[in-house]
Amino acid sequence: MSSTLTDGELTVLGLLVEQPRHGYELERVIEERGVRAWTALGFSSIYYVLDKLTKRGLIEPTGTPSSAKSRTTFRPTATGRALCADATRDALSTLTPPRPRVLIGMANSPGLPDSDIVTGLTRRLDALRTQLADVRATRARQAPLPPAADAIFDYGEAMLAADISWTETTLAKETVMDKYDVKKAHRALYSPSAKDFTVVDVPELRYITVDGAGDPNTAPAYAHAVEALYGVAYTLKFASKRDGRDFVVGPLEGLWRADDPSVFVTRRKDAWEWTMMISLPDWISDDMVHTAVDAVTRKKDNPALAELRPRTIAEGTCVQILHLGSYDDETPTLDRLHNHYLPDNALTFNGDHHEIYLSDPRRTAPAKLRTVLRQPVKPV
After folding, report:
1. φ, ψ dihedrals at 4, nearest 5°
2. Does 1 have pLDDT greater than 50?
3. Which domain CATH number covers 12?
4. Could you say which DSSP state residue 339 is in?
5. H or E element that contains 166
6. Is 310 in a helix, a strand, or coil?
7. b/e per residue, 248-270, with b = 16+ CB within 10 A?
8. How far apart are CA 343 and CA 358, in angstroms?
9. What local confidence, expressed as pLDDT, does residue 264 receive?
10. How confident is the model at residue 301 (pLDDT cuts 50, 70, 90)?
11. Pfam families recorded for this chain (predicted)?
């Protein structure tokens, strides 16, 4: 026979060692002492545990079993008393690390909007404060308590108080931490007018990049590139946040090129070459990028990860505009840029066509997509 006891079994057995009880008495004591705050024992599970302990020979009915199962009084057997004593000694000295689910939530939180994290932690804080008030009220109703019961309530209150303190501190950090956001740091570059072309001077910016070619709607290499970029970008974000510097993962961006620029106007996508990329804060080093790539590679088989590189790009003087609508509706705007605005202002191409995808196409209707169209230029 196994000598191990679950937490629920040890709790019920210990209450029966204290004195013989039937199911309703066990339920009353468990409720009064706040046992459910530190062990999972529902009303129905009490009878399940009683059955298990009986079958193991650890408890027995005190008399002829009643037809009403809930009124059958149980007492420990000699074997049950001995096992309860051994298990209790072990429980007093054994460290059991807590694994609250909130830690999983915090590990995944960088993928959520800031407001969702703050809302979740605020709700948790309110629930913890309510639970602590309930525990204190339950304790006060039964005062004075025996030393063992006092110690149990002390522990429960201490754990709740510690959790409240941790949640308050974490919530404060989430509220105060200044996250770097490239769209805010370089607002003029990421929020151009949708009516007119504007001229901007683009400084050196750091990116993670993947090169490729072909129609982005059908080429597997394009899908692999986007997946690799986001995987590495979020891995970098998580690592940087752990070190105390957080940032918002930037939008997907693309440099597009072809021997004949007219293919962008005619939408001959099979002739396009591209570099897909996501911006980085300047504190993210090349070594950090390589470490993140290695981490993602261990989890995901993606050929684009081997091609991903950190890169610094300086575009200089550019003309840009905000395009509203589907990607395939960019043609009139590009025609205006190539064949009217540039010649009218004595400008010509000086680098790759650049697009910044401010909207998520998976969640945004094509007519509402927002895309920055940018072209590096120089005087003719």
Report:
1. -85, 150
2. no
3. 1.10.10.10
4. I
5. helix 147-176
6. strand
7. bbbbbbbbbbbeeeebbbeeebe
8. 28
9. 66
10. very high
11. GyrI-like, PadR
Token pair in block for residue 226: 């986007």
Contact 363, 324 (CB under 8 A): no
Amino acid occupying residue 95: L
Tens digit of each residue's pLDDT (9 = 90 or more) over 238-267: 999 888 788 999 999 999 987 776 666 666
How many domains are contained in the chain?
A: 3
Nearest-10 crossing angle of helices 220-242, 286-299: 120
* Position 39 confidence tier, pLDDT thresholds 50, 70, 90: confident
For residues 130 and 368, give the distance between their C-alpha atoms in angstroms, rounded to a whole number.
Answer: 44
Q: What tokens were used for 300?
A: 């995901």
- Higher pLDDT pick, 235 / 91: 235
Shared-domain flag, residues 88 and 118: no
End residue of a domain, out of 131, 153, 176: 176
Q: Between these two residues, 3 and 45, which has the higher pLDDT value?
A: 45
Q: What are phi and psi of 261, to 5 degrees?
A: -60, -20
Contact 299, 171 (CB under 8 A): no
Q: How far apart are alpha carbons 80 and 41 in whole angstroms?
A: 19
> Token pair for residue 106?
């915090």
Q: What is the mean pLDDT of residues 188-197?
A: 94
Per the listing, tokens 């088989």 go with 301
Tracing tokens 């009139």 back to the chain, one arrives at 332
What DSSP line would sit under 168-214, residue for residue? HHHHHHHHH---B-HHHHTHHHHS--SSS-EEEEEEEEEEEEEEEES
Distance of CA 297 to the CA centre of its chain: 20
Structural domain for 110, as ranges: 102-176
Q: Which residue has the higher pLDDT, 137 or 202?
A: 202
On whether both 78 and 39 belong to a single domain, the answer is yes
Token pair, residue 320, equals: 């840009």
